Amino acid sequence: MIFVIQRVTHADVTVENKVVGKIGHGLLVFVGVADFDNQQTADKMIDKMTKLRIFDDADGKTNLSASDVGGEFLIVSQFTLYADCKKGNRPSFTKAGNPNMANEMYEYIISEVKKKGFTVEHGIFGADMKVGLMNDGPFTIVLDSEEIM
To answer: Which of 4, 13, 87, 131 is the most buried (most CB within 10 A)?
Structure first.
């Protein structure tokens, strides 16, 4: 599982010219799921993501987590995070999870972050989405389950 996490002042996701998710200050999270991922993987990734101290304190130091600052989450599925570009110029996506399983994991992630008390907005799995954001910093972190498990 891969999360690309961007600290944002605001972000939104649009499908067919309709905004389906919108947040203010918080984290935009792109989620990639592989076939070997499961709820245990998701739980560890969610725990790490929600506790990341990547927001500034009063001294301008990154000492605060999303819960400390009332940060919101916009969670967007993105199978292209598993692009394999080793051969040729056209990426292969064979490492991305089966769509049915990946959608289940995506929905699970959304529900578990909500259970932690956060405001959570999200995109639509498999849709052609347009994502708008104002990256705050810029500040972008890549969490890969293979590196934190």
So the answer is: 13
Looking at the domain assignment, is residue 149 inside a domain?
Answer: no
Choose the catalytic residue: 3, 55, 79, 125: 79
Residue 23 in tokens: 């947040």
pTM score, whole prediction: 0.96
pLDDT in tens, the chain (149 residues): 999 999 999 999 999 999 999 999 999 999 999 999 999 999 999 999 999 999 999 999 999 999 999 999 999 999 999 999 999 999 999 899 999 999 999 999 999 999 999 999 999 999 999 999 999 999 999 999 999 87
Q: Is 80 annotated as catalytic?
A: yes
* Catalytic residue, candidates 50, 55, 78, 118: 78
Q: Which DSSP string corresponds to 41-82? A: HHHHHHHHHHH---EE-TTS-EEE-HHHHT-EEEEEE-GGGG
